[in-house]
């Protein structure tokens, strides 16, 4: 892009009498019109994902173009503060970790020059807007395009038709440019046609009814077929030989949601290009790879035969053939019956999307070392026995451009002074050493970021926090295994100890929660209400000047950028073995927060790199949990711990009210009785005493501010490994075999 031409255009803009939206659109349109997306002849990687949690694109793209500072100055001179664009909606076409990871990968690939294109769905409404009303979550539609979508380019002429048995829809691509050393694109398909609207209306429509399930299947096939159709057509028009597809293409399936792409690929090869089934399967095996992001049983997709057959008979047919083909292969290598069942593509009248992916993929990867070990040993143990070379670990990473440069320009400037050209080579962060100057400057910057965070919370929610207090954050989707409930209990334990005078020297602390509960996940919604009840009680206690609790409403990428830069302590307390990786933990590490967490997901690698002495690890390990299952009895555990019992009883003793919804009692029952899971399935009570001890230790250590800053510096200096630049380089070399161009 011709930067001068662009900056002159911005200088010449007349802002008098025009709205924020118009300024935003004018600047964005100008930038997009000066960029051009050219596909060259080379091997490409394609990332297919049902989610992309992009966030605010304006600041990020101007930064990527290297004009953010100049535009800030030009606007300032015109009396416009660049922060006014914060009111432009985030593009939240994702839920959480998996979608944000996809966005980080695209950013890193473009920045590092790798030809990686993202494919997804252009939902009309992104992840719902969360409003907290009387402490409860209510969901409102997220109309993210209401101010326009100037960064996307509609490619009407590249539309294609997607066929379902009952109707056809048109898939119209929109390219969101991904700017870096090279320009790539995130191509999002919108469904057009009489019956098409529902297909891309919402991200994860409820699938508790048959209609809901059919809609999910339609979404998955829509994305898969639009992507595969395009890749094959593009390949044929260039090389005119379908069998060389895998020489120029490789496809990464982001979890199982796009697994129908495999069946669609085989369908096209066999029925349109007249390739034999065997060769089509071989071609698929060379083209697809699969990443697993979760081992939670409820997240492993299985689709009823009759649902798929009803709207996609050809796809059902391909999957059945693939099932028979794989069974024959396993019979040949004398697999045992139970192994064959566990690997089966079709079992109990259902298709296992994960088993389909594992069978076809050349590479199957987990997203942190422990998670890869767990999928090898448990979820996919038979496949790992017969195809060990498929399984790889690629530990996640996050883009340091958004999660350090953009959200913490003050810390970035300090790193420029002490770590050289770390922005281009993140491993240079190692040069950020512990020195008197770095300690002094880091403390100043953290204090500033906390003040900025306090201002932001005040502006966004009208809540005042003490910016000199210790800021702990527990920010992520609401889920029982992530144990926000345990943090809530821990806060109560500490609060009651302060009240009763047992704890006298507690350093003032602010606990920030942020996260959305799936609309139908009642227990998670109850936990939100419980946290808000606790916040109400503690924040309104005039005698309390030690603890404050904030529930960050509508936590999203933009809110995350502020909280992450302004936090001292990163709470990462999932039940060991359940969090595949976590990526918030990495963002917080980069910004100099210490981790208080369990030996789970990427926490393990974080403390390996940054040192256990610089973080706070506690709680049951995976091995401990394995031993506890079957013997652990939360009720007798509570009997032995009267303090815990007192705190847990607040769920049922009238201390707090859930407005008669029965949520709190239900949560209490989930901890003490076997309902559909074992009592306290996530070992909240078991780990709680150690958690409280850990929080108190953090609190005590914080008082020695220089020592605490040293821990933070060690975390930052060792965070380079967790940049997605490293992750993407590993995918490029070990899985995609693509070059940086
Ligand atoms: C499955 C079936 C039916 C309906 C929905 C789903 C479904 C939807 C979303 C299953 C899984 C997801 C999302 C999973 C996810 O975000 N996983 C997170 O991925 C991150 C990136 O790898 C990890 O860091 C997190 O640990 C992991 O929880």
Describe the structure.
The chain is an alpha/beta fold and 741 residues long. It has 2 domains: 35-55 and 90-396 and 728-736, Rossmann fold, CATH 3.40.50.2000; 417-722, 3-Layer(aba) Sandwich (Rossmann fold), CATH 3.40.50.2000. The protein is 48% helix and 16% strand. It contains 30 helices and 23 strands. The strands form 5 sheets. Strands 1, 4, 7, 8, 9, 10, 11, 12, 16 and 17 form a 10-stranded mixed beta sheet that branches. A hairpin with a 2-residue loop joins strand 5 (126-133) and strand 6 (136-142). Helix 8 (260-271) packs across helix 11 (313-332). The longest helix is centred in the N-terminal third of the chain and has 30 residues, at 210-239. The chain starts with a helix and ends in a 5-residue tail after the last helix. The structure holds ligand 26Q. Residues 95-98, 101, 204, 207, 293-294, 299, 301, 367, 396, 579-583, 601 line the site of ligand 26Q.
